[in-house]
């Protein structure tokens, strides 16, 4: 496998010497973190990146990114970065306070006592194997997850503490449940555990979900379902909720809470994705238990690695004509390997063609622009007068709803607007200037009663 990877993507190692001094910020990415706790070691490291990954570049518009000329330009940039991917890290050898390293499929995880340091590499996994390294992928995955972690706090707490670098997240250590919550909204997929694979093989009860006859590939399910798998070192195994509890992988209470959160996260993710022209087809979530006993969302959220996305506007036409939906995920790379080898059993896999690697890097970047981690519902990246005006609309809508007994804005009817409104209320200046809710509600009720009396 190492030989297979070397010809296409020679591994770059994150193995910094401390301290690091540099006078070339466009090509050297340095990071430091000031810990919230004295137990969290200060980290200083550098990753050699290409000039094209400079954080000083202005953001691209989606139209310019998708245009053929811009795509060709990006492809040139991606090709020059093929040999400069972040494939390996060894922070534990040089950074004081990091006790050990665990190498996952994509992330390198370092133990720092009460915290974990997670470095998201450019490694691309599928079929429980490492297929290649994709330029910019680690950065996109980490930043996408951070955006979703922040935007889903109204659904569940998470383990994120800080992010000192574009590829790095520091998280609270917790007891990880050995179960992946795979949530699906469509019958699709190409792996052995995908819903379409098992369905076409005649399975009608999968992971505790009863499936009707007559479904076709890429069809939308009547409702979203969870198909859990065990987190195994070599191959994830589908499992039913009853088996999870009977085998002691989770208690019934913990499973019920995590499954509720998984379905709510997926529904919210579908709403946000659709507003960006995408369909969130399926994804997976992982949870852990904090020291206080709370169930926390961990690992990653709605990334191109953990999720399948289709282009919304062309889905129906593709489906009706029996065509594969346009997508912005790694499915085409999976299919290439299935056509050219047995990715589950072959000891050595063929090299992924450079053009496919570049295509996946572009799709990952495109997906990042569709669902930018800087996006806000109204403020276009920062709070402005439009936010304030819209915030007052939401504020008074809550008051009116309280008076007449109807929820005009809530997590079920308007999940995106509700989440944005909750964030709006947490802005320090808004907290400082907003009148107390109870006094405004009392005033509104008085005005409402006067109005009703005048009309009757």
TrEMBL record:
The record's annotation in InterPro entries points to: Glutathione-S-Trfase_C_sf (IPR036282), GST_C_Tau (IPR045074), SAICAR_synt/ADE2_N (IPR028923), SAICAR_synthetase_CS (IPR018236)
Domain SAICAR synthetase/ADE2 N-terminal span(s) in chain numbering = 102-347
Domain of life of the native organism: Eukaryota
Q: Region Disordered: which residues?
A: 1-32
Q: Which CDD domains match?
A: GST_C_Tau (cd03185), SAICAR_synt_Sc (cd01414)
- Alphabetically ordered keywords of this record: ATP-binding, Ligase, Nucleotide-binding, Purine biosynthesis
Pfam families reported in the protein's UniProt record: SAICAR_synt (PF01259)
Q: Which GO terms describe its biological process?
A: 'de novo' IMP biosynthetic process; glutathione metabolic process
Q: In which pathway does it act?
A: Purine metabolism; IMP biosynthesis via de novo pathway; 5-amino-1-(5-phospho-D-ribosyl)imidazole-4-carboxamide from 5-amino-1-(5-phospho-D-ribosyl)imidazole-4-carboxylate: step 1/2
EC number per UniProt: 6.3.2.6
Keyword check for Transport, yes or no.
Answer: no
Q: Which GO terms describe its cellular component?
A: chloroplast stroma
Drop me one GO molecular function for this one: phosphoribosylaminoimidazolesuccinocarboxamide synthase activity
Q: Which reaction does it catalyse?
A: 5-amino-1-(5-phospho-D-ribosyl)imidazole-4-carboxylate + L-aspartate + ATP = (2S)-2-[5-amino-1-(5-phospho-beta-D-ribosyl)imidazole-4-carboxamido]succinate + ADP + phosphate + 2 H(+)
Name the family the entry cites.
Answer: Belongs to the SAICAR synthetase family.
Q: What is this protein called in UniProt? A: Phosphoribosylaminoimidazole-succinocarboxamide synthase, chloroplastic
Organism of origin is Fagus sylvatica
């Amino acid at each position: 496998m190492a030989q297979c990877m070397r010809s296409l993507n020679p591994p770059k190692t994150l193995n910094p010497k401390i301290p690091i001094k540099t006078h070339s910020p466009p090509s050297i990415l340095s990071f430091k973190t000031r810990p919230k706790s004295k137990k969290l070691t200060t980290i200083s490291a550098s990753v050699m990146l290409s000039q094209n990954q400079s954080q000083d570049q202005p953001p691209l518009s989606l139209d310019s990114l998708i245009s053929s000329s811009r795509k060709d330009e990006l492809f040139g940039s991606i090709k020059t970065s093929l040999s400069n991917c972040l494939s390996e890290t060894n922070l534990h050898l040089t950074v004081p306070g990091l006790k050990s390293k665990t190498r996952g499929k994509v992330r390198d995880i370092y133990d720092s006592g009460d915290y974990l340091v997670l470095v998201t590499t450019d490694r691309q996994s599928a079929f429980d194997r490492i297929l290649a390294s994709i330029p910019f992928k680690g950065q996109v995955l980490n930043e996408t997850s951070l955006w979703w972690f922040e935007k889903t706090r109204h659904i569940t707490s998470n383990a994120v503490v800080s992010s000192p670098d574009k590829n790095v997240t520091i998280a609270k250590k917790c007891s990880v449940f050995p179960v992946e919550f795979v949530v699906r909204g469509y019958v699709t997929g190409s792996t052995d555990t995908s819903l379409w694979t098992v369905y076409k093989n005649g399975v009608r009860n999968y992971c505790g979900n009863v499936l009707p006859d007559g479904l076709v590939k890429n069809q939308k399910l009547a409702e979203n379902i969870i198909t859990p798998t065990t987190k195994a070192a070599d191959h994830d195994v589908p499992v039913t909720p009853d088996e999870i509890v009977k085998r002691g992988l989770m208690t019934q209470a913990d499973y019920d809470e995590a499954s509720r959160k998984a379905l709510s996260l997926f529904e919210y993710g579908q709403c946000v994705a659709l507003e960006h022209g995408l369909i969130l087809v399926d994804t997976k979530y992982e949870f852990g238990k904090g020291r206080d006993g709370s169930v926390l969302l961990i690992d990653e959220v709605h990334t191109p690695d953990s999720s399948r996305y289709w282009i919304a506007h062309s889905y129906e036409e593709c489906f009706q004509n029996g065509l594969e939906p346009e997508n912005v995920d790694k499915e085409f790379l999976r299919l290439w390997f299935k056509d050219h080898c047995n990715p589950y059993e072959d000891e050595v896999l063929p090299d992924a063609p450079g053009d496919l690697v570049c295509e996946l890097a572009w799709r990952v970047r495109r997906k990042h622009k569709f669902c930018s981690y800087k996006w806000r519902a109204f403020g276009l990246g920062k709070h402005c007068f439009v936010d304030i005006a819209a915030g007052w609309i939401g504020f008074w809508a809550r008051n009116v709803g309280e008076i007449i007994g109807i929820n005009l804005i809530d997590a079920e009817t308007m999940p995106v607007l509700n989440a944005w409104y909750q964030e709006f209320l947490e802005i320090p200046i808004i907290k400082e200037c907003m009148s107390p809710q109870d006094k405004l509600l009392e005033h509104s009720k008085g005005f409402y009663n006067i109005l009703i009396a005048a009309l009757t």
